[in-house]
Design goal:
The chain is an alpha/beta fold. It contains ten helices and 14 strands. One of its GO terms (cellular component) is membrane.
């Protein structure tokens, strides 16, 4: 009986291994990478092996999915994807939402936006969607006015009113925490803030509103959206275990979309 039971167990393990699927998912450093590592733990017993690959910029992960080097990525919000597909011709598809990471304003020089000096230097991301996002935050705070027809992707050239004579320093998003040594304020994506040891909750002096349109998404190549592994990936990501991990680890700095 023991031999039969052992053979059945071995057969079951072999069948599970045969059904297992391996995928590569690109992420940015910080919370996207940390959360996907948790997703991988949940997905593995379900037969989905996820290799999490970190990228230090916002362009390569989409190129890698488009080229077939990755099956999926999880690092960007919808406006960024739309802009990338428009500019670069990527044939990519959103298959699910993940988290919202409110963009924050940080400073080594002031502790209150009311103390922002005239002619202050403001460091913002140099890509169109995140740079535009930063400018929209400044507009929400009443510091600038933007042209009405720019939508979600305004640039400094679209600033129509600048009563405080702010100057804009456009940098790669990953470099913005370093800009705090020189700029009066830097407007930083949460993943790069967390990766540099900044707490959005405790260290930011202003944050985006909770109803921001910048929910993050999981993206695959067009044509792969109905693959069985996509369903398994989303089920693992949207699990109660991953939700609890996010709420416990980030304490409100990262918000779940489900």
């Amino acid at each position: 009986m023991l031999r039969i039971a052992t053979l059945i167990s071995v057969f079951a393990l072999s069948a599970t291994s045969a059904l297992a699927e391996d995928i590569k998912v690109g992420v940015s450093p910080g919370e996207h990478a940390e959360i996907m590592e948790e997703v991988a733990k949940i997905a593995k017993p379900r037969g989905l092996n996820i290799e999490v690959i970190e990228f230090s910029d916002y362009v390569v992960p989409n190129q890698a999915v488009a080229d077939g080097d990755l099956e999926a990525n999880s690092f960007q919000h919808r406006p960024y994807l739309e802009n990338q597909m428009k500019d670069r011709g990527f044939e990519l598809v959103e298959v699910g939402t993940t988290i919202t990471t409110p963009m924050g304003i940080y400073s080594d020089k002031i502790t209150d936006m009311a103390d922002l000096p005239e002619g202050a230097q403001v460091a913002i991301p140099n890509d169109p969607t995140n740079g535009g996002r930063a400018l929209l935050l400044l507009q929400d705070l009443g510091l600038i006015t933007l042209a009405e027809d720019t939508g979600l992707v305004p640039s400094p050239l679209d600033v129509t009113e600048n009563p405080h004579d702010l100057s804009f320093l456009e940098l790669d998003a990953a470099q913005l925490p370093r800009a705090l040594a020189d700029a009066d304020i830097a407007i930083i994506n949460t993943n790069y803030a967390l990766a540099s040891g900044l707490s959005p909750k405790d260290d930011s002096i202003a944050m985006e509103k909770a109803d921001s349109p910048y929910v993050n998404i999981i993206v695959v190549r067009k044509g792969d959206e109905d693959q069985p592994w996509v369903k398994d990936l989303l089920a693992a990501y949207h699990s109660d275990e991953v939700k609890a991990f996010i709420e416990d680890k980030y304490q409100g700095a990262v918000l779940t979309s489900w």
